[in-house]
Structure formats: structure tokens, C-alpha cells
Amino acid sequence: MDTLIHADIFFFITAIAVVVLSIGAGIVIYYLVRILRRVDEISEKVRAESDEIVRDVKDFRATMRSEGIKVKTVLDMFLGFVKKAKNIKPKKVSAKLAKIKSELIKEE
């Protein structure tokens, strides 16, 4: 009789533990599904933005191909000026600047 009471108590406690664990597992699954949906939304946004970046880079490359010579000329002039300005004494800078201005006027 004593073992029957012990078995009933064991099964009662086990049933309560299974119910509590099932509720806990259900809650965990619910939040896991919410997190996975949010991750899916974020990945869609990243995918859309990466497509936009690719499109922008293609547009930039096309622009650089068509207007690259102009940009390269201005960039080379600017970098040359900066590079020469570091090596030239302050007195000679104004003469070099006048020379660059005259070259720009001739090119236009």
C-alpha cells in the first residue's frame, strides 16, 4: 500500500513537471518564432539595400567612364598642387599658383 501511494505521488509530480515544461517550451518556441521573423525582415532590408548599393556603384562606374577624364585631370592637378606645395618654399607658391591658373585658363 505504501508503494502505491509513493507511485501516485511520483506520477502526480511528474505530470505537473511535464505540464510546466511544456508551457515553458511553448513560450520559448513563441519567442523564437518572433525572433526568426524579425531576422527575416532584417535580411530582406539588407538584401534590398545591397541591391541599391550595386546599382549606385554601376551608375558611378558609368559616370566615371564618361566623365573620368575630366575628374582625373582635376584630381591630378589638385594632387600635384598639394604634393608640390609640400616641397616648395612659401615664396615660390604664388608663382606656381599663377602658372596653374594660366594653364587652367588655356585648357578651358
Sheet bearing the most strands, described?
none
Task: Measure the end-to-end span.
Answer: 111 Å
* Gross geometry: rod-shaped
Radius of gyration: 37 Å
Describe this structure in words.
The structure is a single chain. With 108 residues, the protein is mainly α. It has one domain. Helices cover 96% and strands 0% of the residues. The chain has two helices and no strands. It has helices at residues 2-87, 90-107.
Could you give a quick summary of the protein structure above?
By secondary structure, this protein is an all-alpha fold. Helices cover 96% and strands 0% of the residues.
Give the tags:
single chain, 108 residues, mainly alpha, 96% helix
Layout of strands and helices, then pairs:
Elements: H1 2-87, H2 90-107
